[in-house]
Amino acid sequence: MRPLAYASLWLLLATGGPLAATPAQSAAPAAEIVVAFANEPAASPGPAGTTGSRYGGSGYRVGQSAERQARNVAAAYALREVHSWPIQVLSMHCVVFEIANGRKVDEVVAALSRDSRVLLAQPLHEFRTLGAAATTSAGAARAEAPPTEMAVAPAAASYNDPLFDLQTNMAALGIARAHARTQGAGVRIALIDTGVDLAHPDLRGASIHSRSFLDSPGRPAALRHGTAMAGVIAAVANNHIGIVGIAPRAELEVYEACWQLAPAADAAACNTFTLARALAAALASQAQLVNLSFAGPADPLLTALVQTGLKRGVTFVGAAAGPDAPFPTAIPGVITAAGSEQAAPADALAAPSQHVMSLRPQGEYDFESGSSVAAAEVTSVMALLLSASPRRLSTSTLLSLLTVTRPVQALAQAPVAPVDVNTALSRLEALTGGASITARAAPR
Questions:
Q1: CA count, 13 A, side-chain hemisphere, 249
Q2: 32-44+53-124 domain in CATH 3.30.70?
Q3: Among 45, 167, 281, 389, which is most exposed with the fewest C-beta within 10 angstroms?
Q4: CATH fold group of domain 129-431
Q5: Where are the strands (E) in 321-410, listed by range?
Q6: Secondary structure (3-state) at 144
Q7: pTM for the full predicted model
């Protein structure tokens, strides 16, 4: 692929050998299941000055009763424990068991579901990110200019980032104009994905932190999908490097729950175990927005976590997928993000999903495609609205601010216009009685 247009000024073609190997993590085997047990406090308190069995200095713990139930169930059904973890928001102790003797997963799950000791039993599902290989004439390139501190874009919304002109999605979404009013300050976004290359020059100066839920966290080269999503959301503006994020002043919390499937491709996978831990951590972080750029089968445990977040006022954005992958967008209350270039579900919000310029690990840039990108864009636009609002906005309010009315006959046949953040900001100002809309400088 040929170098990007600005390579002669700011970038050099990527060099070196193949990307590093993926983490030592494999897709969920067919003979693994997830079983949950009640993790309630002990019936009687301990001696004065002691801590209950579920709690300690490091936080939420597993109670003796839950551990005993797990051991007894394992012995009764010939199961071998692989992993276990407590989920505080659901008061559960979850265990990943391996089924012995080649028994069918459905039969074992059905038997466990009838056992009074078990709260939940289900297969260990696998989920995939929803990116697509971009077919463009521009290839990956490496940033060369040294990073500088982030500066807020001026009212004229001009940028000194050399690849901004290649970010056609920014014009489609009206971001430059919106940045004169809001850039996402004070809004916390949880990104559940692969890890992110935090050393990328275009993320230096951004408010971004990462936590891994994999046994072997990915090396920088194997963090392609998460790095791309982080770039769409939070790439630093006006640093004389690369691109501009849609919400460059938002606080991005990265939860590494997926692993890259091949060295030279963005495709990544996650499972019930890694995603449940990441979702629980995201809820504990008090994030206002959770970006889920992946999809997979209906999953009772993950659904329970998302529903808990929805009840707490957390907004979830999922990437549009086919009917065979209903999680997470089939959950009522989860916002579906779809590409504006194709027909979209009737209730979806649309954003550009083809050839969107973003980051690649190890200081590189390339175009990204897929509904994963649309989800990251919609999440970012919502961060701008939350930052601009003088009061907290519910998911339903965000949806109403961004919804585009479509003719009934066009619901399933035509592409949908991308969300318009500036129209949404005007609607927000009317909703708040003409209150001044300015970016917040501090977290809520």
A1: 24
A2: yes
A3: 45
A4: Rossmann fold (3.40.50)
A5: 335-339, 349-351, 356-360, 364-368
A6: coil
A7: 0.84
